[in-house]
Write a structure and sequence with these properties.
The structure holds 3 protein chains of 3 kinds. Helix content of chain A is about 20%, strand content about 35%. By secondary structure, chain A is α/β, with parallel strands linked by helices. Chain A has 2 domains: about 80 residues, Elongation Factor Tu (Ef-tu), domain 3 (Beta Barrel), CATH 2.40.30.10; about 160 residues, 3-Layer(aba) Sandwich (Rossmann fold), CATH 3.40.50. The longest helix of chain A is centred in the C-terminal third of the chain and has 13 residues. Chain A is globular. By secondary structure, chain B is α+β, with helices and mostly antiparallel strands. Chain B folds into 2 domains: about 80 residues, Sulfite Reductase Hemoprotein, domain 2, CATH 3.90.480.20; about 150 residues, Sulfite Reductase Hemoprotein, domain 1 (2-Layer Sandwich). Chain B has a 6-stranded mixed beta sheet. Chain B has a 4-stranded antiparallel beta sheet with strand order 1-2-4-3. The longest helix of chain B has 18 residues. Chain B is globular and about 80 Å long. In chain C, strands 3-2-6-7-8-9-1-10 form an 8-stranded mixed beta sheet. Classes of the chains: A alpha/beta, B alpha+beta, C alpha+beta. Chains in contact: A-C, B-C. Chains B and C meet through helix 7 and strand 10 of B and strand 11 of C.
Chain lengths: ~260, ~325, ~325
């Protein structure tokens, strides 16, 4: 019998953290070895399956930060710690850790785009990522949509973290505006030695990347993480194909020099 | 000049506003004709008329301007038309050189049907010819039209008997890709008889008109054609008294049922017609006897089949000149 | 080895073959055409040799034999996930060269692409033997332009002419069966050597084609029904979804269903964001996949030139016409 790559494994929920009104982080008990930027196919039998990026991982667990937007994610939000759901993976390439080595890294994240880069940032925070410096630019729709607030707080004590929201609120004292504006205002000291990761909604990624290019960052030093419809995660279903590239196989993280060729 | 106008009318001519001139109505069952007959019609119009023809609303031709004195010549000349009528409809006219033997029962009209139209659920031309074969020649004033599908392009709803083609759509869920093209189309263009549930299409037979559009929309042949059926609408009419659309009488009946009820209709008329009047339209007879009598007599000895639905009551409606109108 | 077998003898051979195999071949499904009083020519399981239609192209391709339109991946009970286990006979498919060649593309996706073989596909695919049919070409075909007019991938070849069936048997396992019913004869497969439609597929397609206005024509013409992809012998996209049975909500299944890049929702993610909203963009995606993207990845053309997409298109959109336009645009760019 051939191994069935579609067969999911059961995983128990250890903890659930509420991030925002509609975003929850599910901590799963698992020994799966994952890399930052990879994703899992998450499923609940009789409801469906959906690709979800891994937001963090550690010894014997991994985190999935899930937004309540579809059939599957809706159902996931009805679960409690101790309940189980199904996973298979990890899939995709993840972020190119080796290429980041000893470089200055700027991460620009939009909304839930912060989830796939969270583990990478935490590695730096825990001194297990060998990079020279890290700067985080994060944009959210509104103050109520800010993800990982306690982490952001914690991180900002160690490295520059800039947060902006599209729409402020009465109590919001921080910046209002798009991530692109944060990039425009950046003063990048070692342009050639700077690597950039951009993750977020398609338009945010498009304009933020263009902004970095204006800042003379080489297109070979910018990485983007794509989000596409996927039904398999293993290069069969065809939904995520762009040109001759399968996002689930060669991505979801692409060097901008490659991403620029991937026209939808 | 002495002319028996009763005989003239029975002969499919008419009394016109121009004294001593008449017009001949040529029957074209199903509105389908081969070009040889077209040529003959054209020749008659040139030789005996004014070199013009009128296309009637029932899909026949009317050749105006024929001198009444030449009717016998014309009758001889149209022999090939009557021969062709015998051939296409299977009628035995006995004599074909003395003109049309009756004109009361009108030409059976039909939309172009499935010989051309993708929507049509059957060969309307053939059915029109077969109905003509059963009901012609006859003096009773009856109008019948057949339509390939419930779109009713031929306006069967304006006839005494209107026949609309139906098909039972068969669904094979194993072939369905869930594109919902059928469901969306049915909701937008038809009666919303289809519903998408659990990645499978469900059909509400009560709502389904049998139009077959789901089959046309389906890219994978998950929907295919089942049996052919017909729905029958009755007693639609125009006129000065009480114009109205035909009302549903039968649904999901087979072709032989359609032919049989056309035949029975004439026995019903024969039994109930008011012979004190010069002529009586079948719709008025039904108004007099009531629908149940009509239904029971027309369906006599008819095997309706398992799927058939018969209207329990009919409220014909329509309007009258002085009521149901606001000015 | 070649054989000449009289028809009635071949019927016996076929009968014997049927004892060991499920046999699929082009058949006529009476009155099952989309329009009333028309037939559907398609692949189906056949019981007797006389059911096979030798002189018409099938509307649908044979891909559904190994890649069913709907396929159950798992059955769910209250507390278990089960794989379907039904064992079937080996499969024989009567097919023309283009259709046999289309399995190369299916194999590339299901067996080569990515780190895993698709077990559901493989289970069916490994049971397939082909019986090659001769071909004289049909409307809209252009196999000879792609080299898919010829194949070596068959176990036997059959050509029905007059009162006899002329066969060539390559599969050693089958030679005994064939020799039992026929006399030896020199038989070589008959292929299309030149189609009515001849053209070259452009070797290099520049990214400039993406922005070209040629696609806007398809935005106006294409209705997005997906027929071109469902009839295509090489289209393999699918979507996975779960079902909860109506009569027992604790039970259900996970299945895959054919998907089409031409139909709404192909790229749409939870939350509503999607790509390629215009039909012209979808046409471009499909056409370039067939004649360029796939080749870049696997080294051979995906399209086998069967012309089914054109046969099936209700808007009379022609893939070969589109390829021709791309060629002209590329040639023009080359000049500049």
């Amino acid at each position: 019998m051939i191994r069935n790559p579609y067969m999911p494994q059961e995983a128990e929920i250890l903890k659930i953290f509420q991030e925002t009104d509609i975003n929850y982080t599910f901590r799963l008990k698992t020994d799966l070895k994952v890399k930052s930027g990879q994703f899992l196919e998450v499923s609940i039998p009789r409801i469906g399956e959906a690709p979800i990026s891994v937001s963090d991982f550690g010894d014997g667990y991994l985190d999935l930060t899930i937004r309540k937007v579809g059939r599957v994610t809706q159902a996931l939000h009805n679960l409690q710690p101790g309940d189980k759901f199904f996973i298979r993976g990890p899939y995709g390439n993840g972020f190119p850790i080796d290429k980041l080595k000893d470089r200055r890294l700027i991460v620009a994240a939009g909304g839930t785009g912060l989830a796939p880069v969270k583990s990478l940032i935490n590695q730096y925070y825990n001194d297990s990522l060998e990079i020279k410096s890290l700067q985080l630019l994060a944009g959210f729709k509104s103050p109520g949509d800010i993800l990982f607030s306690s982490e952001l707080e914690k991180w900002s004590k160690k490295f520059p973290v800039e947060i902006t929201v599209d729409r402020g609120s009465e109590n919001w004292k921080g910046r209002v505006g798009l991530v692109t504006k944060l990039v425009a205002d950046l003063d990048i000291s070692e342009v050639e030695n700077t690597m950039v990761i951009v993750v977020g909604p398609p338009l945010m990624m498009k304009f933020t990347t263009q902004e970095f290019v204006k800042k003379k960052i080489s297109i070979g030093n910018i990485y983007l993480s794509f989000e596409r419809k996927m039904s398999c995660g293993i290069g069969k279903c065809g939904h995520c194909k762009i040109d001759d590239t399968y996002v689930c196989l060669e991505g979801p993280v692409f060097e901008y020099s490659k991403a620029i060729q991937l026209l939808d | 000049m002495s002319v028996d106008t009763k005989k003239l009318v029975k002969n499919a001519y008419r009394v016109t506003k121009e004294r001593y001139l008449t017009a001949l109505r040529v029957r074209v069952p199903g509105g389908h004709l081969d070009t040889k007959q077209m040529t003959l019609i054209s020749r008659i119009a040139d030789r005996y008329g004014r070199g013009e023809v009128h296309i009637t609303t029932r899909q026949g031709f009317e050749i105006p301007g024929i001198p009444m004195s030449r009717m016998e010549e014309v009758n001889r000349e149209i022999t090939p038309l009557l021969d062709a009528l015998q051939k296409t409809t299977g009628i035995d006219l006995k004599v074909t050189f003395e003109g049309y033997p009756a004109a009361g029962t009108r030409n059976v009209s039909a939309c172009i049907g499935n010989r051309v139209c993708p929507f049509a659920n059957y060969d309307t031309t053939r059915l029109a010819q077969d109905i003509e074969g059963i009901i012609y020649p006859n003096d009773f004033h009856v109008k019948i039209a057949v339509s390939g599908c419930p779109n009713d392009c031929i306006k069967a709803h304006m006839q005494d008997v209107g026949i609309l083609g139906q098909v039972e759509p068969l669904y094979d869920s194993k072939r369905c890709i869930g594109c919902k093209a059928c469901v969306d189309n049915c909701r937008k263009r038809v009666t919303g008889a289809l519903k998408f549930h659990n990645f499978t299409v469900q059909r509400d037979h009560e709502k389904c008109t049998g139009c077959g559009e789901c089959i046309l929309k389906c890219p994978t042949a998950a929907w295919t054609r089942g049996e052919k059926y017909y729905s029958v609408v009755i007693m639609g009419r125009t006129g000065k008294k009480n114009p109205r659309l035909a009302a549903p009488f039968l649904r999901w009946v087979a072709r032989d049922v359609v032919l049989k009820i056309c035949e029975n209709l004439y026995s019903y008329i024969d039994k109930h017609i008011d012979r004190s009047l010069p002529k009586e339209h079948v719709g008025n007879i039904v108004d007099r006897t009531g629908y149940p009598v009509f239904r029971d007599e027309v369906l006599q000895n008819v095997d309706l089949g398992e799927r058939a639905m018969v209207a329990k009551h009919i409220n014909f409606g329509g309007y009258e000149y002085h009521s149901n109108a606001s000015f | 080895m070649g054989y000449k077998i009289y028809r009635e003898k071949f019927a016996d051979l076929f009968h014997e073959l049927r004892a060991s195999y499920e046999i699929y071949a082009p058949v006529t499904k009476k009155d099952k055409g989309m329009y009333s009083d028309t037939d559907l020519i398609t692949y189906d399981k056949v019981e007797s040799f006389t059911e096979i239609v030798f002189d018409k192209k099938t509307f649908f391709s044979p891909k559904e034999i190994v890649f069913p339109i709907r396929q159950t991946l798992f059955y769910f009970t209250e507390d278990s996930v089960l794989e379907p286990t039904k064992l079937e006979k080996d499969i024989v498919i009567f097919a023309r060269a283009c259709d046999i060649n289309s399995f190369r593309s299916l194999d590339a996706i299901f067996l080569q692409n990515g780190p895993y073989e698709d077990p559901y596909y493989k289970k069916l695919r490994q049971r397939v033997k082909f019986i090659l049919l001769p071909c004289d070409g049909f409307e809209n075909c252009y196999c000879a332009c792609l080299g898919t007019n010829i194949t070596d991938n068959y176990s036997a070849y059959v050509d029905v002419r007059d009162d006899a069936v002329y066969c060539k048997v390559k599969d050693a396992y089958w030679k005994g069966l064939w020799s039992k019913y026929g006399e030896e004869s020199e038989v070589e497969p008959r292929y299309v050597s030149k189609n009515e439609n001849t053209f070259e597929i452009p070797q290099k397609i520049n990214n400039s084609i993406f922005e070209h206005q040629m696609w806007s024509e398809y935005t106006n013409r294409c209705t997005g029904c997906g027929r071109c992809t469902v009839v295509c012998p090489t289209c393999t996209c699918f979507t996975v979804h779960d079902i909860r049975y109506d009569d027992n909500s604790k039970y259900g299944e996970r299945r895959r269903v054919w998907a089409s890049c031409q139909i709404d929702g192909f790229t749409e993610m939870a939350g509503g964001h999607g790509y390629r909203h215009k039909q012209g963009e979808r046409t471009r995606f499909r056409v370039l996949h067939k004649i360029s993207d796939f080749k870049k990845r696997f080294g051979f053309q995906m399209c086998v030139g069967c012309g089914r997409c054109e046969d099936a298109c209700q808007e009379y959109i022609s893939l070969k016409n589109c390829i021709h336009k791309i060629s002209e645009i590329m040639a023009e760019e080359e000049k500049v």
